[in-house]
Amino acid sequence: MGEIAEQMQRTKSAVRTRALKLNIAIARAENSMQRGKRAAPRSNRQDIADLTIPRLGKRACALDWAIYCRRMNPTPFRGPPAQFSALDHIARARQFRRGADKLEDMESAEPNWPKYALLGHAVELALKAVPKYFEQSETYQKPNAAKPANHDLVGQYDWAKLHGLASNQLVEADLPLLSELHKDHYARYPQALRPVCLPSEFDDLVDQIIADVETIMRLR
What we know:
This protein has helices at 2-34, 42-50, 58-72, 85-101, 113-135, 153-162, 169-183, 203-216; strands at residues 106-107, 110-111. It is mostly helical. It folds into two domains: 2-72; 82-216, Four Helix Bundle (Hemerythrin (Met), subunit A) (Up-down Bundle).
């Protein structure tokens, strides 16, 4: 019995040692990735995997190896660095605007609701690009006002104006109409019917907002 207990103790100690080595290897690989370096070569990955093979069992090895490979092969669509966030917002706004432009105003005798959603989100993305653009500055000072709700386009427009976006008469007049639809998710979910403008009535509004945002971001 004493020999068996001693052998079990040695096995547990070996497992803990190998697990510690594996964690160290993973931490080093993650640090390397964060510094912009390439992931460990496949030969090195196999060496790290070999640390877990003895006495851990096939199931445990497969699990550890899967976790390690997942960390070494992250999805290619990762979040953008902070310094590019404003540019990504305005670029995505253009994408949603182009997507809306391909749709008809009406479909099966009713408004084409996805077009409203695309136009509203294009405006939301464009307006949010303005504060993100100025937040990059080391001298940035947050305006002394409450930050608006995400889908409140009028609130987002006022917030952008506090960051320097020029006011526009067309936007001031028409944005509340689109903001009401966007904030209440009226185009996304069936709700009680009410009069609405056709989506193309907002084309000039959306284009004007994108143009004004690109101007303040010095993209024009």
